[in-house]
Amino acid sequence: MLLTNDPVLKAIDSTVEAIRQRATANWILAFSGGKDSSAALKIFLAAYKKARISLASVTVIYCDTGVENPILDAYVRGLFGKLNQELGGLSASFKTHVLKSPLHDRFFVKIIGRGYPPPTNNFRWCTTGLRIKPVSAFIARHDPANTVVILGLRAAESQQRDRSLAKSANLYWQKQREGKGDYDLFLPIVELNVSEVWDAIFGLSTPTSLDPSTLETLYRGASGECPIIKSPQAPPCSSGRFGCWTCTVVRKDKSAKELIRAGHLELLPFLNFRDWLSEFRNNPSKSLTHNEFV
After folding, report:
1. Per-position b or e across 165-201, b if 16+ CB within 10 A of its CB
2. Minimal CA–CA distance to 237: which of 196, 270, 284, 279?
3. How many domains does the chain have?
4. Given 189, 211, 233, which residue is the final one in a domain?
5. What is the domain extent for residue 17?
6. Domain for residue 28, yes or no?
């Protein structure tokens, strides 16, 4: 029974209950390096310590699409080496794993080699090939019926997500149905808002390899502003988004522009190429020639 009104402590207690219910399951935490997956990781580890029971298997996975924002990708790769060692010290059942799509599904193989158009809202082929398929294949190897996937999804993110989550009596638990087997989704931060996500990141100590100040600095650069985290009067901090640097689904890559403005000039060629991709896709009179790449 949950007795606290603090959203982060409530999330921890709900996760403790979930861990105790599914101690023999294969737990897989999808980690992108962003604030939501970071909060989910911290809450899960706090709950694991509080539950004081052993888990059969816990894997923190990072899906390398090959076109991740270079700044965030470098941050995650640096973090993963330290995180693997730290989690191994907590329990032998903890490990990290980097996933990558097969060569034929990668972004530039499809764009250049197979003639796919840059993705649109109506034809978002990139998400399926670069993220969903690698994760689904990994889960399929781990007995889906006895697998719990932890996602950093929040109900407050969109009305569409609210409608999807409302179909379940328990917001924390969802069922994912796929061709090769169903598995359970557990959403530890589903009821948190942006400020509470940052409270979890700054307030929870484990893993120590995840430095809140470093992450906050990344978001400050990507959003162009960030008030003091702990100020009760401050508006929600650092709500910017990271994504693939090639993404043409969004109209403008605001985070890349803000990071460039913050001093990450190495992103300028990436942004210029992304804008060229978008322009090329939207202009039916353009044709791809050798000179376009010279």
Report:
1. beeeeeebbbeeeeeeeebbbbbbbbbbbbbbbbbbb
2. 196
3. 2
4. 211
5. 7-211
6. yes
